[in-house]
Amino acid sequence: MTTTKNSIQQKLTKLDGIVKYFESQDDGFDLDEAVGKYEEAMQMVTSVKKELHGIELKINEIQKKYEEGAEEDD
Fold first, then answer.
1. How far is it, in rounded angstroms, from Cα 7 to Cα 18?
2. If you placed Cys at 25, which of 10, 29, 54, 62 could pair as Cys (CB 3.0 to 4.6 Å)?
3. From CA 29, how far away is CA 15, in angstroms rounded?
4. What is the DSSP string of 8-51?
5. Contact assessment for residue 55 and residue 5, using Cβ atoms and an 8 Å cutoff
6. What is the pLDDT of residue 16?
7. Do 48 and 12 contact (CB within 8 A), yes or no?
8. What does the DSSP 8-state code read for residue 1?
């Protein structure tokens, strides 16, 4: 889990850097560079979504396991 956390955190940090790039640019930014940064950001967003979805599935499995265990105790 720590690896996933670090991976997500690294991607979010990099995304923050890309956002700052766009926020700091005036009207004179390089369009090709901006498109490349946008594509990189979208790849990271997609990756983070997949990782978070995997974590969500794991949490749901854990909840289901303990809900079933609680029903058996009744």
1. 17
2. 29
3. 18
4. HHHHHHHHHHHHHHHHH--TT--HHHHHHHHHHHHHHHHHHHHH
5. no
6. 97
7. yes
8. -
